[in-house]
């Protein structure tokens, strides 16, 4: 299975203005554009509670150009796997919030390969432009020293725009801020939040209703709900998202599939 999905990514032909994505479960994605392969929140460490096992090992992740971590929780910045990923893809850049930088350095990662971002900070090179936005994972948890620990990213490359919400609630001004970009693919969590999860330390995200409203107002080419299946005690039914979206925003296209599946999207 590992070789099959990596081979599929490598062999997929993608033109400028297109992207092909693969969902790896939770909020973990692979996106291929005309010139780049990016991994968003790759979560590759096996754990007993996982409902979706990793599709490959860190050492098999040989094709990354950019690796994104939205925040320093184990299912988003997977510390046991990071060194293996970076060694397997020796030219890849790792893009994370500022607060995660020192821990990554302490783990032996090269400083020059870590791009640390804060709110409204940008990174760009000859292939990609990344804009970081703050995220509210129950709280903003802002620090004057390390900034916002939870980020969302707008990723512009090869004629497409990807919005990954990471883990966040909707908050005042988010929709207006995101409306600056013509979003091709929006990746949004739908697992929601409640008192029981909060009291056991499980920080919440937008509900499926909130995710529908955000997507319907932004009107990306395609929206994908996520973060609903990995752990049985932090899950949601994606059909609720689909049904509400079809009822309220019938012209908005969405994708729901099985982990390991994906689709081609044109900007």
In words, what does this structure look like?
It is a single chain. 22% of the residues lie in helices and 23% in strands. It is an alpha/beta fold and 267 residues long. It has a single domain (2-248), classed as Ribonuclease Z/Hydroxyacylglutathione hydrolase-like (Metallo-beta-lactamase, Chain A, 4-Layer Sandwich), CATH 3.60.15.10. It has a seven-stranded mixed β-sheet, with no helix packed on it. It has a six-stranded mixed β-sheet with strand order 7-8-9-10-11-12, with helices on one face. A hairpin with a 2-residue loop joins strand 9 and strand 10 (160-164). The model has no long low-confidence stretch (mean pLDDT 96).
Short description:
The chain is an alpha/beta fold. It contains seven helices and 13 strands. The chain has a seven-stranded mixed sheet, with no helix packed on it. A six-stranded mixed sheet has the order 7-8-9-10-11-12, covered by helices on one side.
């Amino acid at each position: 299975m590992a070789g099959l999905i990596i081979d599929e990514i490598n062999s997929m032909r993608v033109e400028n203005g297109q992207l092909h994505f693969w969902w790896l479960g939770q909020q973990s994605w692979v996106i291929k554009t005309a010139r780049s392969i990016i991994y968003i929140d790759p979560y590759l460490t096996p754990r007993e509670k996982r409902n979706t096992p990793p599709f490959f090992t860190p050492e098999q992740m040989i094709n990354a150009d950019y690796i994104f971590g939205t925040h320093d929780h184990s299912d988003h910045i997977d510390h046991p796997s990071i060194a293996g990923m970076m060694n397997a893809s020796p030219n890849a850049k790792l893009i994370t919030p500022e607060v995660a930088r020192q821990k990554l350095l302490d783990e032996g990662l090269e400083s020059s390969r870590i791009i640390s971002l804060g709110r409204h900070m940008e990174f760009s090179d000859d292939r990609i432009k990344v804009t970081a936005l703050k995220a509210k994972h129950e709280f903003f948890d802002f620090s004057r020293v390390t900034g916002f620990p939870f980020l969302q990213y707008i990723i512009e490359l090869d004629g497409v725009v990807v919005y990954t919400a990471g883990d966040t609630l909707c908050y005042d001004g988010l929709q207006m801020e995101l409306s600056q970009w013509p979003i091709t693919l929006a990746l949004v969590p739908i697992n929601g939040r409640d008192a029981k999860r909060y009291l056991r330390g499980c920080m919440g995200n937008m509900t499926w209703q909130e995710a529908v409203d955000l997507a319907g107002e932004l009107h990306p080419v395609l929206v994908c709900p996520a973060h609903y299946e990995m752990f049985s005690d932090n899950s949601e039914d994606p059909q609720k998202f689909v049904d509400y979206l079809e009822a309220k925003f019938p012209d908005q296209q969405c994708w729901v599939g099985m982990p390991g599946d994906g689709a081609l999207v044109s900007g």
